[in-house]
Amino acid sequence: MPEGLLAPPTRDRLQAAANAADTRILSHGARARALDFYLTNPSGRARPNRRWKIDLDALAFDPLASELTKNDVTFSGSLGRAIALPLATAAREHAETLARIARRIDIERLKFGALALGLSSFGALVHVPADYDVAEPIVITYHIDAATAFPRTLVFLEPGARATVIVAFRSRSGAFVAGTSELIVEERAHLQYATTQHVDSGSVAVETALAHVGRDGTIALASADFGDGLIVRDRESSLEAPGARMEQSAIFLPTGEGHLDVAATVRHTAANTFSQTVVKAAAGERAIARFLGNIVILPHAAGSEASLRDDALILGPQAHIDSVPALEIACNDVKAYHGATIGAIDDEQIFYLRSRGLDETEARRTIALGFFEPVVDAFPTAALRESLTRRIVETLR
Amino acid sequence: MSETMGLRVAGLRATVENTEILRGIDLVVEPGKIHALMGPNGSGKSTLALSLAGHPHYQVTAGSATLDGTSLLDLSPEKRARAGLFLSFQYPAAIPGVKVANFLHAARQAVRPGSLAPAAFRAMLVEKMDILGMDPSFMGRYLNDGFSGGEKKRLEMLQMAMLAPKYAILDETDSGLDVDALRAVGDSIAALRASEEGRQAGMLIITHYPRILKHVTPDVVHVMIDGRIALTGGHDLAERIEREGYDGIRDEVGARA
């Protein structure tokens, strides 16, 4: 863990983080009040592939530092022998655990990871001891009352541990939130990790996630992103030892003028590893969704299996979805599949349902809900699945 | 029998992409009667079915269609269904993510609102699936998604049984079915007609082949050629088609015209 993790941010600290990352791409997004990003696009509308510049000289650190203290994190769920703590407390009481995570995960090599590392002052640590099964889901809720937040979520499952972690955000309108998820799943451990976020107009939500999975360990990632703000996700999972598994399910549903930009990479670095990615993206009105799914199978990963399924549904005549699946395979004797579909709701489907008595609105809603159904099913609790379904129904209305 | 009862089609003309397919159809299916509508490929049988169900790609340009006195042609597809019309599709659409049981419940509620408590609905569903020889796992499958041809047709019959329409049009429900599935379709029609809700159901069974008519005995057989009803008769007409094919009828009708 770099020195001064939880000290107030300084210009030097951010500069160091920027230097560590690729500064050309150390930025993205819309106007973040406290950070004063430069918004260079004259139309004011985010576009795919845009490079952003960050003007370090323009940052006002003192107001930012005091602003950031308004953010808070709370936990719910019965922990038993597991630990779930605010990062500030964890830094005092569990410094060794944080150091172990930092040795394994280099979040600063990713552009927003570096930014979060440079500026973060709050977050959460979940640590589950070996062979312990946390029966109840651990819910981490970030209360973001500042205009800006850099929440860091660190989850460490020791060998044979099992846990479900759900991350929720309560942020004010117009907030800039750039968080990280740093997840370590040791051998035979099993982590289910779910995040949902609604990002409203004028808000920016960035997540950089890195997951490492050990021998015969499993990580099941589920995420759902909604709203008409700017959403950027950069996620990478490494399957580092034989038998490691990753199952990834994602819902993307930007609306209005929303823009969503997601890159998800799975790295098979060891033999007999397994990954499965299922993405359901729908865009309404003038929204843009861009998904870049990348499967990397390295030379020593013989016997591995990877699948990537990406379905996109265009709900508005001006909506736009880019879907870019990619396979990078450097090993024989592996199985890798990818498939993508993109389209609007089929008239024949609508007519079929109408001929059974459903009106057109109901028919469209039924089809769209069905589109998301397999991924909604991947979320951990019935309450979460119901709230997701409600959110989808509201969004489609 | 009142003059307005029945599925009554008069002088119906319809076009698809500016090509006239139906060239004046006259047909009355009375309550409780089974009609077979036969005819060669391209004669317009499916166009008639889809026009009556209100498919947006089919434009009705003349004529009328009423269901027990209610004019269908001004109604949206869903209102036609709620009025008691059911179409068993030749090519049912697949709707991934929508479970069969949930869909059937929604459809039943839409067509016959509040008529069945959940437990009674479930019991009815189990009973109808049994008649059709469908495994209970069907309930949890996604609507027509990955279904075989036979499974799709059985599901159409299950929907007919659950919705208990006043009039059902079966658009080549028999095509592509093996003997067992064919018998299940026949049993399903018989079961509907034996039920309280379906006792007075009228049926229009569209088919190429007389073989379905071994399982369901029609009261009336029509032969459709080139967008018109060319011949109407009894069950013997179906037997004649089996012997002679459609060419003989076409020649006879052509000679008369």
Summarize the structure.
The complex is a heterodimer of chains A (397) and B (257). By secondary structure, chain A is an alpha/beta fold.
Write the layout of secondary structure elements.
The complex is a heterodimer of chains A (397) and B (257).
Chain A: H1 11-20, H2 61-68, E1 72-76, E2 83-86, H3 87-93, H4 95-104, H5 111-119, E3 122-128, E4 138-144, E5 148-149, E6 151-157, E7 162-171, E8 176-185, E9 190-199, E10 204-213, E11 218-227, E12 230-239, E13 245-254, E14 259-268, E15 274-283, E16 288-297, E17 305-314, E18 320-329, E19 335-344, H6 347-354, H7 360-376, H8 382-396
Parallel strand pairs in A: 3-6, 4-7, 5-8, 6-8, 7-9, 8-10, 9-11, 10-12, 11-13, 12-14, 13-15, 14-16, 15-17, 16-18, 17-19
Antiparallel strand pairs in A: 1-4, 2-3
Chain B: E1 7-16, E2 19-29, E3 34-38, H1 45-53, E4 58-67, E5 70-71, H2 77-83, E6 85-88, E7 95-99, H3 100-111, H4 118-131, E8 142-143, H5 149-163, E9 167-171, H6 179-194, E10 202-207, E11 220-225, E12 228-233, H7 235-256
Parallel strand pairs in B: 3-10, 3-11, 6-9, 9-10
Antiparallel strand pairs in B: 1-2, 1-4, 4-5, 7-8, 11-12
Helix pairs in contact in B: 5-6
Notes on the structure:
The complex is a heterodimer of chains A (397) and B (257). With 397 residues, chain A is of the alpha/beta class. Chain A is built from eight helices and 19 strands. In chain A, strands 2, 3, 5, 6, 8, 10, 12, 14, 16 and 18 form a ten-stranded mixed β-sheet that branches. The longest helix of chain A has 17 residues. Chain B is of the alpha/beta class and 257 residues long. Chain B is built from seven helices and twelve strands. In chain B, helix 5 packs parallel to helix 6. At the A-B interface, helix 6 and helix 7 of A face helix 2, strand 7, helix 3 and strand 8 of B.
